[in-house]
C-alpha cells in the first residue's frame, strides 16, 4: 500500500482512470457487439446508422490511449466491410 501522500494521491487517480477506461471500453464493446448482431440479422440500414457512432468511439479511444491506432483502424475497416458485404447479399 502507498505510504507517502503523493503515492496515495497517485493511487486514487489510477483508480479513477481505471474506472473511466473500463466504462469506455465496455460501451465500445457493447456497440460493436450490437452492430455485429445487426449485420448478422441483415439489418444493414440500422447498422449503417450506428457506424458513425462506432467510428467516433474508436477515434476518441485512440486519442485518449484506450485503443491503439492500428486496432481501431482494423475494427473500423472490418465493420465497414461486413456491412457492405451483407448489403450486397
In round numbers, the mean pLDDT is 93
Output the structural class.
mainly alpha
CATH class: Mainly Alpha
CATH topology: Methane Monooxygenase Hydroxylase, Chain G, domain 1
Radius of gyration using CA atoms only: 18 Å
Overall geometric form? elongated
Main sheet makeup: none
CATH architecture title: Up-down Bundle
Low-pLDDT ranges = none
Question: What order do the SSEs take from the amino end to the carboxyl end, as H and E?
Answer: HHH
What fraction of residues sit in β-strands?
Answer: under 5%
CATH homologous superfamily descriptor: Ribosomal protein S20
DSSP helical segment count = 3
Distance between the termini: 58 Å
Q: What is the share of helical residues? A: over 70%
Number of strands: 0
Q: Number of domains in the coordinates? A: 1
Concise description?
This protein is mainly alpha-helical and about 90 residues long.
Describe the structure.
This protein is 87% helix and 0% strand. By secondary structure, the protein is an all-alpha fold. The chain has one domain (7-88): Methane Monooxygenase Hydroxylase, Chain G, domain 1 (Up-down Bundle). The longest helix is centred in the N-terminal third of the chain and has 36 residues, at 5-40. The chain is elongated and about 60 Å long.
Amino acid at each position: 500500500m502507498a505510504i507517502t501522500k503523493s503515492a496515495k494521491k497517485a493511487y486514487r487517480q489510477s483508480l479513477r482512470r481505471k474506472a473511466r477506461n473500463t466504462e469506455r471500453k465496455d460501451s465500445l464493446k457493447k456497440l460493436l457487439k450490437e452492430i455485429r448482431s445487426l449485420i448478422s440479422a441483415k439489418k444493414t440500414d440500422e447498422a449503417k446508422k450506428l457506424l458513425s457512432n462506432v467510428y467516433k468511439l474508436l477515434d476518441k479511444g485512440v486519442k485518449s490511449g484506450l485503443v491503439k491506432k492500428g486496432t481501431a483502424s482494423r475494427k473500423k475497416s472490418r465493420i465497414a466491410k461486413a456491412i457492405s458485404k451483407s448489403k450486397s447479399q
